Amino acid sequence: MRKGNLMLNITEKKLDNARMELQISVPIEKVELEYKAVFDKFKNYAKIDGFRKGKAPLHMVEARYQKEADQEVAENLLKSMFLEAVQEKQYNPIAYPQYEFERISRREPFSFKATFEVPPTIELGKYKGLSADEQVCEIVNGDVEAEITAMRERLAKIDKKEEGAAVQNGDLVKIQVKRVDDVAASERDSVDFKEYQIVVGRSKDDSALDKHIAGMKAGEEKEVEVKYPKDYYLTDLAGQKVKYLVVVTELNTMELPPLDDEFAKKMGYDTVEQYRTKTREYLEKYTAEKTKGDAKAQILKQIVEDSTFDLPESMIQNEMGRLFKRTCESVGYYSENLDEFASLMGIEPEGFRNRLHDEATRTIKTTLALLEIAKKEDIKVDENRYKEVVENIAKRNNKTVEEIEKIIIENESRENIEMELLLDGAMEFIYDNAKVKKLKPITFEEFARTRGRR
Is 229 helix (H, G, I), strand (E, B) or coil? Predict the structure, then answer.
């Protein structure tokens, strides 16, 4: 590079994690110019015995302030020559560089090394024609009735049963449970109970605990053995015979509101039949979105695994910070220190940090892959889709579209919404261009178990 008649000698080296290393040699003429500028500045305020401020001879100022000048010249040259070097080589640093040099002298060229991060890069692998399995969930009338019943139960009149009453189907019962077959009899008391609240008789699962507590009374304790099927959805229990100690702590009756048009109106519908119809539509839409989302995740995972990424560590650390903040919000405990948070939550700090690092890396890779696909396929944000999102936000928050648009402008959040829409568009593209195999339908009960919905 030329600046005046001076030229930098620059050697480039690519490192891992989206880092570059520049070895830069500044010619002695440039070093001398910088020393002169610094000493001229020092001369104006130098205090040397026998001379008024700013009147001392330059050679005395140079002798007196040599160490300070070396430091300032080095700082000035590091910043200015690094800037010139990256401009010449057309790099775009995304974080402050790290500098290394052995010495600086007015009598020789100044050589230093600058290491810095550049934007991430991706070599996209195959993203069309990938295979994925998509689950299919069949909604039947019983699923619709169970969903409506669950709502009626949430609005039921609850009354404590009289003393001495026994557990019956339909009762709302609180129980305490602990597993006892995997500990010595002498250690049972040290195992903590876990408390649950169940509606007796609602579960269709033969291994459900409520099948074993019929006839028990409040305060009664009972040891029960449960045999789990080999294909049980909780793999830790599948095929096992497990003994539990169960204590009934509270016994209540539930009087459900009648399922009539009046109840339907309270739920926002005109009639019970409309309530049923809309509930079926909701369940069908909910399950379809979830199973389609699972298929998209399979496809996206293949794309990420088949692509090559070069990610700057600072980007991963920033994403880790966002994930950590969300974790704090989810548990309601806020901390600035990851180690302190992990210790208080009973989590091994290093393992917690590694999990955050892995999740942050996956998130960034996923986003980069989708953005690259959007770029290659010229996918744009549909303005009508953006308006639809704004309308939905307004509806959910009981506000007008104008009010939401004003908030978006104030928060400068339109770009975030458009980014999500762009990623969604890329996801739809890879799904539409994949070989998706629909699997044999499963029941809603099976679907709900795998997601812990019931």
Answer: coil
Judge if pTM exceeds 0.90. Answer: no
Q: Whose structure tokens read 């015979």?
A: 241
Considering Cα of 352, then 353, then 356, then 362, what sign does the dihedral take? negative
* Three-class secondary structure of residue 249 per DSSP: strand
**Cα(370)–Cα(377) distance, integer angstroms:** 10
3-state SS class at 138:
strand
Q: What is the pLDDT along the chain (454 residues), one digit of tens a residue?
A: 444 446 789 999 999 999 999 999 999 999 999 999 998 888 887 777 777 777 778 888 788 889 999 999 999 999 999 999 999 999 999 989 999 999 999 999 999 999 999 999 999 999 999 999 999 999 999 999 999 999 999 999 999 999 889 999 888 999 999 888 888 888 888 888 899 898 988 877 778 888 888 898 999 999 988 888 888 777 788 888 989 999 999 999 999 999 999 999 999 999 999 999 999 999 999 999 999 999 999 999 999 999 999 999 999 999 999 999 998 888 888 888 888 888 888 889 999 999 999 999 999 999 999 999 999 999 999 999 999 999 999 999 999 999 999 999 999 999 999 999 999 999 999 999 999 999 999 999 889 887 754 4
Q: Where are the beta strands (DSSP E) in 189-305?
A: 194-199, 221-227, 241-255
Are the C-beta atoms of 402 and 393 separated by less than 8 Å?
no
Percent composition of the chain: helix, strand, coil (DSSP 3-state, to 5): 50, 20, 30
**In which residue are the tokens 């980014």 written?**
419
| Cα separation, 450 vs 287, whole angstroms | 12
Whether residue 161 contacts residue 252, with contact meaning beta carbons closer than 8 Å, is answered with yes
Please state, as a whole number, how many other Cβ atoms lie within 10 Å of the Cβ of residue 58: 13
Two structure tokens written together for 420: 């999500």
Among candidate residues 218, 217, 224, 229, the one with its CA nearest the CA of residue 244: 224
Alpha carbons 228 and 206: distance in angstroms, whole number: 8
- Beta bridge pairs of residue 110: 26
The alpha carbons of the chain give a radius of gyration, in whole angstroms, of: 34
Residue 250 CA to residue 173 CA, distance in Å, equals: 6
For residue 7, the cross-strand partners are: 2
Contacts of 25 by beta carbon, 8 Å cutoff, 6+ apart? 8, 9, 10, 109, 110, 111
Distance between CA atoms of 417 and 38, rounded to whole angstroms?
Answer: 50
8 A C-beta contact, residue 53 and residue 45: yes
CB 271 within 8 A of CB 264: yes
Length of the chain: 454
